[in-house]
Amino acid sequence: MRRVRTIGGGRAGTSLGAALESAGWELLGCLGRGDDLGGAAARTDVLVIATPDDAVETVAGSVRSVDSTLVVHLSGALGLDVLDGHPRRAAMHPLVSLPTPDLGTERLRGAWFAVAGDLGVNSLVEALGGRSFPIDDGARPLYHAAAVISSNHLVALLGQTERVAAAAGVPLEVMLDLAQGTLDNVRRLGPAAALTGPAARGDEATIARHLEALPADEHALYEALVREAQRLADG
Asked: Nearest-CA neighbor of 66 among 89, 93, 49?
């Protein structure tokens, strides 16, 4: 049996704690605002700091170090320096969206994790049946930017899809099936080979008709993505 304690009661900390508990770990509780953090690393094998990025360093500095305890943060953008002072330190960023604690708990099982630092972090990944890849501190901002683009920016794009489709009387579900097929194509072929549509074939007349039909406040995003599609098509 392994013991874990978390700091931060948001979606990430709650999801990870529940996922590890379901995998047989002993969850010693979740500390939050107002709790005394000084002894958080005592009598546990792993202490997970699951706070927002701008609080990680302050929280870590509030915890008295324990030589045997592995202190882990979940940030994708921060390096190990924010955990300075703790002999065993690691980063473990789950490369999966956690929209709710229940969905997060489910999706953490078998997920990809970006890891760095103490090799003991692999025991958490293995407990979740996950897969990991190393990310050096210097590459973490770029890595996290890629993660944001592939997840958050995709959601923002689908928000535009929902608005425009609704104006045409088409349900979002129809477009989500199209998007899922496109993701499958990208997985099989890569982005450039999976690209189709008017920008890929140089159909400027169709693009012009789209812009004429779209509300003015949708033009900027549409035109920006047309340019990116043309860039991809041009190699």
From this structure: 89
What pLDDT digit, counting tens, does each position of 176-214 carry?
Answer: 999 999 999 999 999 999 999 999 999 999 999 999 999
Which of 135, 170, 186 is the last residue before a domain boundary?
135
Question: 121 with 146, same domain?
Answer: no
Which two three-digit tokens encode residue 21? Answer: 């508990």
**What is the model's pLDDT at position 18?**
95
105/107 Cα distance (integer angstroms)? 6
Q: Using an 8 Å Cβ cutoff, are 187 and 218 in contact?
A: no
**Whether 4 contacts 26, CB under 8 Å:** yes
Rounded CA separation 128/162 (Å): 34
Last residue of a domain, one of 135, 160, 182: 135
d(CA 199, CA 228): 9
- Contact between 87 and 35 (Cβ < 8 Å): no
| Same domain as 84, residue 52 | yes
State whether 164 and 93 are in the same domain.
no
Domain that residue 204 falls in: 142-234
Burial class (CB in 10 A: 0-12, 13-18, 19+), 67: exposed
